[in-house]
Known about the structure:
Distance between the termini: 49 Å
Order of helices and strands: EEEEHHHHHHHHHHHEEHEEEE
CATH topology of the largest domain: Transferase(Phosphotransferase), domain 1
Helix content: 40-55%
Strand order of the largest sheet: 6-5-10-9-8-7
Radius of gyration: 25 Å
Number of domains: 3
Largest sheet: 6 strands, mixed
Strand content: 15-25%
Amino acid sequence: WSGTHRDSDPENLLLASKCKNAAVKLADFGLAIEVQGDQQAWFGFAGTPGYLSPEVLRKEAYGKPVDIWACGVILYILLVGYPPFWDEDQHKLYQQIKAGAYDFPSPEWDTVTPEAKNLINQMLTINPTKRITAQEALKHPWVCQRSTVASMMHRQETVECLKKFNARRKLKGAILTTMLVSRNFSGKEEWEQDFERSCTVCMYVLCVCVCVCVCVCVCACACACVCVCVCVCVHACVCACGCMFPARKQEIIKITEQLIEAVNNGDFEAYAKICDPGLTSFEPEALGNLVEGMDFHRFYFENLLSKNSKPIHTTILNPHVHLIGEDGACIAYIRLTQFVDGQGRPRSSQSEETRVWHRRDSRWQNVHFHCSGAPAAPLQ
């Protein structure tokens, strides 16, 4: 099988047995795709935030190198117990990744060999064409000459950091699973009530976790451990409850950006895939009338947007997302469009837009659109 996993992270790495030197196996191929050779294409946005490659975040064509990037992140974590890219704000996290903004801080990295750092640098190369391949990585000195190159010191601090990292991951997963099951059994309840109940469950898990930690630590006469356990549990609970809304809102912003990008590129096929066939809209071009369906929009794509050879750049300002249950959302924003007019002069136009999104079969579709101000497609 020749393909790309697209979701390589520590959670999907398993040992074949508990024996020493057991084989490492890769699990969960739900997002995997077949890729022939060095094939590069846009296969969609998929993966776990901290392990996504720059090319995926930039929505560029990608292939097998995305897995090498994820492996570089995993190797970094395994050596020191924390990830190379991290921020509570997902947008800032993605900016770090796209810029390749990571380092090897002291004192954790002082005892890591230059060869290990070199391998990580080659795996976390921003340009996928210059990134080390799997075959090359297997021939890297740190891998094939580990008896002479790899450090033999016992990294106890890394082991402790990994335990904390794993504890946060497992607790967060348990809480999210509880929230999901709870939602599935209460379809008629409002999302806000569901979230409130899920946070109550989260606090219950937190209390149990703290109690277990206290009991263990009292028995071991190591009171300092209580503080560590409480901090880990609180952090995991806060992340689990706090990350769901921002992540969903970020998803709506991204799909809106993709739709606008399709408009700028004059790509009606891509635009139609993101929109519901019965899309309704109020926009300046319709002269105050409510338009339904895609034919009205097709006219502008075929006669204006697809024939435009001049650059168009759009910026979304002050996006506000309102979540409507699990499968609905509304986004309001200011759209600033920069373009070149017929005389070759740079121009800017501004419009205020609102889009209503509905999720069907795990795919978001734009069902209603309202625009005021400048036309959505600037006449050039």
